[in-house]
Amino acid sequence: MKKLLLIRHAKATHETGFTDFERPLTDKGFMQAELMAARLQVNSIQPQILVSSPALRTLSTANVFGQVLGLPQAITNKDIYDASENALLKVIYNLPDTHDLIALVGHNPGISQVLYYLSGAIKEVPPCAVALIEFDADSWAEVHEASGKLTHYDTPSPPAP
């Protein structure tokens, strides 16, 4: 069984003076990442590796998750940055089969699109949202449309009443 943890990067600055690729996390973003990583720990969701876009905000998010969960440094993949659904699917299909639970840290709209494509779940994916999809598959290459089941979903903000 393969499990994919989708993580959207935490809150990043919109201040001028940064290229999109260089936008850093805000203080709130760092707090969101710590909170969400701690919630994964409480729910015994422990990825084996983190695969992240190399953009500063995603890599910073991945680093916080890695520190809280005691994981090795995130592996960066430039194909995740500004990726379409198809580009993200290619990344997923090529994940190492030696790992059964992998966290992918990326950007919207790609993260939302892949969540829907793989699980059929329609969810808001605000900054630092996490979604765990489980697949009855032995290889990442076997993952396909609607083949996954959303088993955990969480956001840093409480849902609106």
UniProtKB/TrEMBL annotation:
From the broadest rank down, the organism's phylogenetic lineage runs: Bacteria, Pseudomonadati, Bacteroidota, Sphingobacteriia, Sphingobacteriales
**Record's protein name:** Histidine phosphatase family protein
Pfam families in the record: His_Phos_1 (PF00300)
